[in-house]
Amino acid sequence: MAQCLVIVKVGGFGFLRGCLQEFNYQQTRGLVNVRLKWVKDRALDFVVASERDLKAASILVSIISSSPQCCIPVYRLTCHRGQLGLPHDLKLATFIRRYPSVFVESYDFWGGGARVPCFSLTPEALQLHQEELNVLKQNQLDFINRLRKLLMLTQGWTLPLQTLDQLKWDLGLPYDYIHSVIPHHRDLFSFVHLPDDRVGLKLLSWEKDLAVSHLQRNSARQQKEEDVRSGCLAFPVGFTRGFGLKRKCMEWLKEWQTLPYTSPYSDASHLDPRTDVSEKRIVGVFHELLHLTINKKTERKNVSNLRKPLALPQKFTKVFERHPGIFYISNKCATQTVVLREAYDRQKLLQKHPTVELRENFAKLLRKGFLDRSKGLYKKNKGDGIDVDPHVDGIGNNQFSSEEESDNNLFYEYDSDEQHEPRIHL
Question: pTM to 2 decimals?
């Protein structure tokens, strides 16, 4: 999959090994000024690009299926557009018509007697949605624990609802988790008013057994015994083929891996943010956060909005740039997506959650409808007004991002959009 500094076969992935001579771990050791280059990883770019429309289509299926008639006029769907992540110049009706294997278009008279397009779901889409509901029901404890662990990472065990809404797809939570899940677990969660007049979700109790990171849980099997005893755990590291790590950077990275590991669930207020020890703790936080997601990836803007809840320093997302062997940032789909490298063997997710398998089946249904439509298998009557989709070429490829991106525009800090908080009555 990748070229590692020192290769030890464990589950098909190499671990960074080798310690230099003992050195002082005191807090006085400042943050080493090292910047590693970004190198394109086409396999992980493909993983991100292949799910370009999956989230938006899945959300629309949840919305339509929850309506009384399972059929909604397009103008009522537009109020949900902000959750879909679609390009601003792409009409919602155009996007929906792209996938006739999932959405059925009809016309009806709504409000004022106007004839407007309405959309319902195909039998295949309804069946997949029912399977999704069954998976959610069967794995509810797993999703609840993912949510609990996420809140345990934060200050006050609390997150704004908007921040959770941005992460619910990645965590595998139901679209309407606020109403379908939280009210049934009032012993675990509570809605609270935040100082900025928003509403947040608070965890009511700490679970010691959950406060163990993925790295710690696997340490006995994947780490050296002396490292486990000393708490100097190393992260799995791999690089894109042809990365070409310089000797200076290699030595720094070997030393950095031998630094003490601070659990993301423990209090780190005593750490000096200007040190490598503190940086390793930040890396550990996002290593754990990405392991909580079912696809081991999330958009970078979702991470940026977690700075205050996670009590992290300014420009904390720079750890993604400094550790490209742990994280990969893809520029596909007109956004930046952070991917946990160790979770993938090229394009293959090594451990698949049942929800991931279901989403893969849904993606196949989307692809089939798109290809059949391009072959003219879905005939439309004259006057149906099918829009030409300027963002997709004849074979369904995304034209937003070119194959060659510029390094100069790769990394940047996102502005938080926390002021647009959806309201909920307590």
Answer: 0.80
In this structure, is residue 78 part of a structural domain? yes
Range of the domain at 115: 48-128+358-377
**How many C-beta atoms lie closer than 10 Å to residue 103's C-beta?**
22
For residue 206, CA distances in Å to 12, 108, 241 come to 35, 52, 42
Is residue 116, in this structure, part of any structural domain at all?
yes
**Tens-of-pLDDT digits for all 426 residues of the chain?**
444 343 333 333 443 333 333 334 444 455 666 667 788 999 999 999 988 899 999 999 999 999 888 899 998 999 888 888 888 889 999 999 999 999 999 988 766 667 889 999 999 999 999 999 999 999 999 999 999 999 999 999 999 999 999 999 999 999 999 999 999 999 999 999 999 999 999 999 999 999 999 999 988 666 666 655 656 899 999 888 777 777 888 888 899 999 999 999 999 888 888 899 999 999 999 999 999 999 999 999 999 889 999 989 888 888 998 999 999 999 998 899 999 999 999 999 999 999 999 999 999 999 988 887 777 766 654 344 444 444 443 334 443 333 333 333 333 333 333 333 343 444
The partner residues of 105 in beta bridges, in order of sequence, read 119
| Any domain includes 223 | no
* CATH number (domain holding residue 88): 1.10.10
The answer to whether 338 and 290 are in contact (CB under 8 A) is yes
Phi–psi pair at 166, nearest 5 degrees? -70, -25
Query: How many domains are there within the chain?
Result: 1
